[in-house]
UniProtKB/TrEMBL annotation:
<dbReference type="Pfam" id="PF01381">
    <property type="entry name" value="HTH_3"/>
</dbReference>
<dbReference type="InterPro" id="IPR043917">
    <property type="entry name" value="DUF5753"/>
</dbReference>
<feature type="domain" description="HTH cro/C1-type">
    <location>
        <begin position="146"/>
        <end position="200"/>
    </location>
</feature>
<dbReference type="InterPro" id="IPR001387">
    <property type="entry name" value="Cro/C1-type_HTH"/>
</dbReference>
<protein>
    <submittedName>
        <fullName>Scr1 family TA system antitoxin-like transcriptional regulator</fullName>
    </submittedName>
</protein>
<feature type="domain" description="HTH cro/C1-type">
    <location>
        <begin position="33"/>
        <end position="68"/>
    </location>
</feature>
<dbReference type="Pfam" id="PF19054">
    <property type="entry name" value="DUF5753"/>
</dbReference>
<dbReference type="Pfam" id="PF13560">
    <property type="entry name" value="HTH_31"/>
</dbReference>
<dbReference type="InterPro" id="IPR010982">
    <property type="entry name" value="Lambda_DNA-bd_dom_sf"/>
</dbReference>
């Protein structure tokens, strides 16, 4: 079994940390240790770190406590307490004589055989959890997001530390982006903060695992549910959306978007001002425009084309924009007629996302009054798919869409005397 010093040295090397950097990170996190002490731990001259220091080292180096003390088989997640207990036993053996250690090894061997566990493994070649340390921008984005979630849960730092175990994670240092918590720690924090939605948990964990760079929506000012929908939207290869009140945000002009936000209120996007909410809409549009491979399939209720939320001139420019979008090869725009519709679903606006990986299931999103509901249950998602399929075959074709748009454009032009 690899010993603590070997594991610590391997983790420091793989993560690219110097002893001085590690000592500085832990000291800033409220666990003061010196560079010399880290060096002694790394070389095996010191073998008895406190449990608080051990947990802090594991959190900073993005490994589990069990792995750090030399165990390759303990799982992460719900059994972390077992890892801590095993680590405590290992540390308590420090200083025993060779004969006592031989007796202890025999007891451990018998216990492992009794529980059907394999013999002691060889030293591991790699580090579990994250493969590389998080960049500064990733740490800051993750810390800011976790800070916002803790605030939303109305929990103090002390309450969080009590919930996950005193010393298990340096919450202030994590939230300030000074250290990167291990993904296992982030999972526990999400549970403490009441985050149970799989897409939202995965959104945060993808950043914690270093699987993606920090994006424009990875800021505390964007609510986590909204940031998750933006992240899903940017990963999607096909976007299907049905709107009954406004032109879909991805197809809006700046003037129309400002009016739509003003009517519904910027708070619906978790923003304090219309300008802040408008910036989010524009960022989404820019991301879509930058990827011509994404297919957007939009169904709009015809009443949206006649609803006056802006001046006639702005409405006319919005209709012109829709005519342009309808000609794009990756946009399929359809109109649900006001007169004698063949099918009207019993739902409000919704969106469906499909992803490039065949094994990744589609996700539906029901756009609510104050927030969106992400739907992953396969039966429920299929019901939304069936509704959209019925809409797609009972609404206007691409050619008919152009006719409807031009009809309303000409009607509006005549009212303006053009």
């Amino acid at each position: 079994m690899a010993n603590f010093a070997e594991r610590l040295d391997l983790a420091l090397t793989k993560r690219g940390f110097t002893g001085a950097q590690l000592a500085s990170a832990l000291t800033e996190a409220g666990i003061p240790i010196t560079r010399a002490y880290v060096s002694q731990l790394r070389t095996g001259k010191q073998t008895n770190p406190t449990l608080q220091v051990l947990r802090a080292l594991a959190s900073c180096l993005q490994v589990s406590v069990g792995w750090l003390v030399g165990d390759d088989y303990l799982e992460s997640g719900s059994v972390e307490d077992l890892q801590v207990r095993a680590a405590t036993i290992g540390l308590s053996a420090s200083g025993l004589s060779e004969s006592s250690l031989e007796v202890l090894r025999g007891v451990v061997e018998l216990a492992r055989k009794a529980e059907g566990l394999p013999d002691e493994p060889e030293p591991a070649a790699g580090i579990p959890e994250a493969a590389t340390p998080l960049s500064g921008s990733q740490r800051r984005a993750l810390g800011e997001r976790l800070h916002g979630l803790r605030q939303s849960a109305q929990l103090s730092v002390e309450q969080v530390e009590t919930a996950i175990g005193k010393g298990a994670a340096a919450i202030p240092a994590i939230e300030e982006g000074r250290i990167a918590p291990a993904p296992i720690t982030v999972e526990r924090l999400l549970t403490v903060y009441g985050i149970s939605s799989p897409p939202i948990r995965e959104y945060v964990l993808s950043l914690a695992r270093g699987e993606r760079e920090a994006a424009w929506y990875d800021v505390e000012s964007v609510p986590v549910w909204l940031a998750t929908t933006y992240a899903l939207e940017q990963r999607a290869t096909v976007i299907r959306t049905f709107h009954t009140q406004f032109i879909p945000p991805l197809l809006q002009t700046e003037e129309y978007a400002r009016a739509a936000i003003t009517v519904s209120g910027p708070a619906i996007l978790g923003q304090p001002t219309v300008d802040d909410a408008l910036a989010l809409v524009q960022a989404r549009q820019e991301a879509l425009a930058a990827d011509s491979t994404v297919v957007l399939w939009a169904v709009i209720d015809e009443s949206v084309l006649t609803r006056s939320i802006v001046g006639a001139h702005v409405q006319l420019r919005q209709l012109d924009r829709l005519v342009e979008h309808a000609k794009r090869p990756n946009v399929s725009l359809h109109i649900l007629p006001m007169d004698d519709p063949a099918y009207v679903p019993r739902t409000g606006p919704f969106t469906l996302w499909r992803f490039v990986e065949a094994f990744e299931p589609d996700i539906a999103c029901a756009h609510g009054i104050e927030s969106d509901e992400l739907i992953t249950d396969t039966t429920a998602v299929e019901a939304y798919h069936q509704a959209f399929t019925k809409l797609s075959v009972t609404t206007s074709t691409r050619e008919e869409t152009s006719e409807v748009l031009n009809f309303h454009r000409e009607r509006l032009s005549r009212s303006l005397g053009k």
